[in-house]
Amino acid sequence: MTTVAETRSKSLLYLENVSVSFDGFKALNALSFVVEPGELRAIIGPNGAGKTTMMDIITGKTRPDTGTVLFEDAIDLTKRDEADIAQLGIGRKFQKPTVFESHTVWDNLELALNRSRGVFATLFYALTGEDRARIEEILETIRLTHRTDELAANLSHGQKQWLEIGMLLAQEPKLLLVDEPVAGMTDAETAETAILLREIAETRSVVVVEHDMGFIRELGVKVTCLAEGAVLAEGSIDFVSSDPKVIENYLGR
Amino acid sequence: MITRFVLRALEGKIVVAIGVLLAIAVLVPALNLLVPAGSAFHVPTYAVSLFGKYLCYALLALALDLVWGYCGILSLGHGAFFALGGYAMGMYLMRQIGSRGVYGDPLLPDFMVFLNWKELPWFWYGFDMFPFAMLMVLVVPGLLAFLFGWFAFRSRVNGVYLSIITQAMTYALMLAFFRNDMGFGGNNGLTDYKDILGFSVQAAGTRNVLFALSAIMLALCLLIASAIARSKFGKVLVGVRDAESRVRFLGFRVENIKLFTFVVSAMMAGIAGALFVPQVGIINPGEFAPANSIEVVVWTAVGGRGTLIGPIIGAIVVNAGKSFFTGAFPEFWLYALGGLFIAVTLFLPKGIVGTIQHGWNARKALKAAAEREKGEDTDMMPQAAE
């Protein structure tokens, strides 16, 4: 058995006893959750289990009432705002694909690129060869090279999801939070996305929230099941899906 | 770095617009001063000042377009920045009157003598110096925008709430400036100017110079606005407009981005006001009226927001229409303005320039699609996983 202190010091992201309530409704109830460097983790759970609230807290959109949220065992995320946390290296993909529709695919990635984000730095920014190469590399990874100059608005739903993932990659985060990446995707796109996420997880940690059990099986990673704002079960997909509490709370319904 | 920043601004349409503005700056004064009054090509002096006024309005609309069209901040208070720039210029012009006023006081403007004030209030110091007054034309609107934006953007006031408080801001300023003890001439404002830098404001020569300056400043601000819009910062601005939270989660400080744009825009509005005042000969609290700021929004919408050139065209077209209507059918102007706004909203939601641009792009896309069809039939879709 490892001690709590050891777990914490090894962790990339460490949540302990995090609670938050909105108008009396306990969205998170003493949630504890650890992500290690280089880990790919899936999160499942019924609607209202607190999956999105958890992401809001990690990315600084919501402040918890109580609890500890640490990044790399040193940085207290509850004291930082969204821009700060993004610059620390936590990227977030929203449930609904959110890309800049009136910009081209290329411009979307250029904006996301991990460069100085100050007013004057962006006013006088000029694309360097290095940046160009990085954007081309990402385009390759997200399979959008052939649509570089297309407006993001003209992409298919699945391609928008990929573009958003690409934007997160351009940010060069240490931790990627991905909310329902395959919602509304075709089967082929879903399979492709599983490959894409596994590729990404080779160099950084990824947390995926998803409802699609087939997709989670395809990912083949450790699964955490949330319900009513706390962890219900954690382990392999087979272990979690055979847990009677999980069946009752989530799968059975 | 600066050169590259400016060169990037010079896209086809912008170059043409700047060229046209610079040509007007030379041509109109020439037609006024060099062509004899009897000729069909002669431009009367009153028309020079009238066009000059339109150009000031165009600059105000351009300033609004930067915050509204690009950054998505619908300011219903831009008239306030315009009026503040105008007051700064008006204060300089008042100090130039000297002892030529009705009461002949060498230091105090007439309205202060009338109010029985004995000395010049501290905030009128320095306005006898032209460079200081011109600095204030930029600083005062910029500072107000900075303070306002600092609080509003930091507390994430957005959308319609922000629009309402900008409207409240200009309304509050109007009420304040109406009061005599504010020290800005109260209800009557500042007027009865004599000269600017030693030249009579009434003289045809001065009027032509002011006209040319209006055209040149408009061209310069268009250049700056275009350079901003075409930089990476400009792309971030559009991002803020379309998906603010995405920009935030990419690590940008949205409040700083908005603040910078708002201050630059307010300064441009201030310049417009400063050029406006000597050409119309008066500035009074009426310029702060909420309706004025709303009219600017109409001009911008009619011309096409987010196009930079559109608002310039919109401001000139609507105001020329206003001059014509209020002369020909005075009672119909408000109906015409209302009708125009409804028609634009219903039939030209992108405005004049936006619609033309859209049509142009659609044609280009059709052509490109046709080319592609001819050229290749290969499947462009990415390969699915085996």
From TrEMBL, chain A:
Keywords: ATP-binding, Nucleotide-binding, Transport. It holds the Pfam family ABC_tran. CDD domains: ABC_Mj1267_LivG_branched. One of its GO terms (molecular function) is ATP binding. Residues 13-253 form the ABC transporter domain. InterPro entries: ABC_AA/LPS_Transport, ABC_transporter-like_ATP-bd, ABC_transptr_urea_ATP-bd_UrtD, P-loop_NTPase. This is Urea transport system ATP-binding protein. It comes from Pseudorhizobium tarimense.
Automatic annotation (TrEMBL), chain B:
Keywords: Cell membrane, Membrane, Transmembrane, Transmembrane helix. Its main location: membrane. The keyword Membrane applies. InterPro entries: ABC_transp_permease, ABC_transptr_urea_perm_UrtC, LivM-like. It is a multi-pass membrane protein. It is found in: Cell membrane. The chain crosses the membrane at residues 12-35, 41-60, 67-89, 129-153, 160-178, 209-229, 257-277, 297-320, 332-349. It comes from the Bacteria. NCBIfam families: urea_trans_UrtC (TIGR03408). This is Urea transport system permease protein.
